[in-house]
Amino acid sequence: MEYRNLGHSGLMISEVTYGNWLTHGELVDREQAVACVRAALDAGVTTFDTADVYAQGAAEELLGAALEGVRRSSLVIASKVCLPTGDGPNDRGLSRKHIMESCEASLRRLRTDYLDLYQAHRFDGTTPLEETLIAFDDLVRQGKVLYLGVSEWTAPQIASALTVIRELGLRSRIVSNQPQYNMLWRVIEPEVVPLCLREGIGQLAFQPLAQGVLTGKYLPGREAPDGSRGKAGGRAPTFIGRVLGRPLLERVQDLIPLAGECGMSAAQLAIAWVLRQPGVSSVVAGATRPEQVTENAAASGRTLDDAVLKRVDEVLGDLVDRDHGKTAQMMAVKPSWTSTTP
Questions:
Q1: Which UniProt keywords apply (predicted)?
Q2: The whole model's pTM is what?
Q3: 290 lies in a domain?
Q4: Catalytic site residue 114?
C-alpha cells in the first residue's frame, strides 16, 4: 500500500480507503464485515470512511467494533453529516444543532474521541454557510475533529464556502471533496477538479468500480451473479440498476483484455485509473468479501501509461459522462449511458 497527502494537508492517507456505504449493516453480516476490515488492515489500508446515515448508524457501530483494539493513531477515520438520520425537522441538514449532535453520536458509535475527517455529506441550501462553517470550526477547536471535507458539492458551492472561511477568518480549512468518480462518471472534471487543484483540496473518489460494473462480473443479457449487489437485498439493487445496460456491459467486457495486458484484474485497472487522475488523494472502495478487499488494495502503486489511458477512452467512447451539471445529482439523475435493457 502506498500513501498520499490528503490535498495540501499534512494528513497521510492510504491510496485505497475502505468504505462501508452499502455493506456494513445492510449487505453483509457482522462476522463478514469484521473479516473485510481485518483484510483491509492486513493490506495496509489505514483510512476508513463511513457516515451517520449509512444503515441509520449501524454501519458506524459495526466499523467501530471492527476497529476496536487497533492503535487509534495509526488509523484515519472519516465520517459525514447532513442526510436524514431521523424523522424530526432537525434530524438532517447542516445546522449547528444537527452537526453538533450528529458528531457526538458518530463518536459514540465509532468508539473514538475524535474524527480525523468530518465531511458535509451534501450541500444544505437551507442553512447559512456561516452557521455551518463556524460549527465545523468549533468542533476542530474542541479537538473532536481534525480535518474538514465536503462530499458531492458543486464548484460554486465549494468556492462560496472558501470565501466565507476567509471572510470570517476561520482557522479550519476544507481539505477534501468526496465525489463519485470513475472511468464512466467524470462529471467533476470540468469544474470541480480545477477549483480543487487551485485550492489544495484532495479528491476522495467513491464508486471507482461503478457499483461493481467495472469489474466485468455483470454480463450483458444475463442475470446478476449470486452474491453481487445486483442480487442483494436492501437498497443495493436500486443503485446498481442505475448503471446497468447492455451497451455499457459489452464495452466493459472489452476492458478485461486490456487489464490483463497490464497485469491487473478489471477492478484493479478501474482503481488504478482513478488514482492516475489529477487531484485524487484516494479511492473509497467497499467490499462484501475479504478477497475483494485484498484485490482492491493491490491496485495501489500501480502505474498506467498514457497509451493505456487512451485505450480506455477509445473503448468507452461516448458512454463516458462529463456533464458537470450532474455534480451532486448522483441520487436523482441517471447517467447518459444507462439503458433499460440489462
A1: NADP, Oxidoreductase
A2: 0.89
A3: yes
A4: no
